[in-house]
Amino acid sequence: MRHAKPRKTIIAAIGGSLWEGMKQNRVQRIVERWVFPTEPGSYMGGLENRPVLEHSRGSIVTDTQGKEYLDFQSGQMGAALGHQHPRIVAAIERTLKTMMHASNALLHVPRLKLHETLGKLLPRPLEKSLFLVSGSDSIEAAIDLARKATGGLDVVGLHAGLHGSTSYLTRSISFNWTRRKHAIVAPATASILAPYCYRCPVGLKYPSCKFQCLESGMEIADANFTAQPAAFIAEPILSAGGVIVPPKGYYEAVRKACDDRGMLLIFDESQTGLGKTGKLFGFEHEDGVAPDIITISKHFGGGLPISAVCTTNKVAQAAVKEGYFATRSHATDPVLCAAGEESLKIVVEEDMPGRAARIERRIKRAWRKMAKEFELIGDIRGRGVLLGIEFVTDRIKKTPANKAVGKMFEYCLSHGLIFQTRGVRDLKNVIRLVPPMTASNAEIDRAMSIMYDALRAVTKGRRKKTPRRVKA
Ligand SMILES: Cc1ncc(COP(=O)(O)O)c(C=O)c1O
């Protein structure tokens, strides 16, 4: 499916009279007077100097001046089906006319249809689902579920992982953000070193390392547990941590570590779920690894906020016996459920995993070509439309090229391409690309050509020798 390109005339008809041409000094005034401040160094810092968006369609977002940008971060990853997918818009419109909100203590048709559609897609033994609103909600509910089902308490994550921003639990296990930033962290939460092979945290090499990061990590975790451990939580690909793809066999070893301790394995599929990695779920790239619980959110609602916790009948029954429940006032709103069901159908019927896999091949090919020219490109990784390019000032020492990435970001933004910069902890030397799965070849090629020009501008045309080949 290709979305039509937005034209200025359409924009004017929609809301141009209100906002078109909003002057930068007015934006500044509103931000300074009324908007809650952002930390300048954070990924949201400097909002007032960025485009003010007014319209979106497909892979394109348009600002109040009518300037178009390729949105290669898919909004906040919630538009991975493309902005304003016509089938999502139609499903929302249909449902708005019948029932917008409903009690979560009564069933309704869109909710039932969503449970059934999702249940049929889940790899067995996962089959039961409950709905919430945000990704963070689903993580809190998943951990609570693991605690109730096992009778345990402690939760282990990865030091480059991110699982949400609610003030207590999910921030506490978002180790890739500084826990110091928060007023208080939740007890019984700890991290072990992530399997970041490009910069091995224990200075070894895969596969001879035999997952020493996990071995030693779990030994430390065992020493620190305050009670029976409940769960290990991880993203199949550590997205905010710099798009880290754990090496083959790692999650199999994690599964064993969980089984040995009576812990449940939770995969946070917020970023990796529903087609984005080239398979329906990110964990399906891990042969023979069956999680006990997964969470989904982001483009699950096609742009609206709905999330889910999915688990096995056995885990669900064990937790409910102990009084477990999780909900929110808007968790099962018909309009959200209808958007959710339509997004699942789109993922399957429009072969989003297949599209994501094709986009991965095209983008990686372009970066491999650029890596022959520019030493700045240290590593190319990721799956499907969740891709990361790590920048270094030299390939032997792997010195993080934070400044160059900052300049690339500014160049690309001003030339009509949006993405986010990420990295482990304080690093911001990874360009994370998350184009919508509906992006056309022409859009991908245009983005890659902006990136190429950015690289030339940042290196001022000086192309260093490339002493080492880049794997991808
Ligand atoms: C892997 C992962 N889990 C959970 C969340 C939290 O989702 P939300 O912001 O919808 O609460 C995020 C947010 O980016 C995420 O990347």
Write the H/E string, N to C.
Answer: HHEEEHHEHEHEHEHEEEHHHEEHEEEH
CATH domain class name of the largest domain: Alpha Beta
CATH architecture identity of the largest domain: 3-Layer(aba) Sandwich
What is the total number of structural domains? 2
The rounded Rg comes to 22 Å
- Indicate the proportion of strand residues: 15-25%
Topology-level CATH name of the largest domain: Aspartate Aminotransferase, domain 2
Uncertain residue ranges: 1-18
List ligands, each type once.
pyridoxal-5'-phosphate
Write down the overall mean pLDDT.
92
Content-based structural category: alpha/beta
Shape: globular
- Count every beta strand, where a strand is a DSSP E run of 2 or more residues: 15
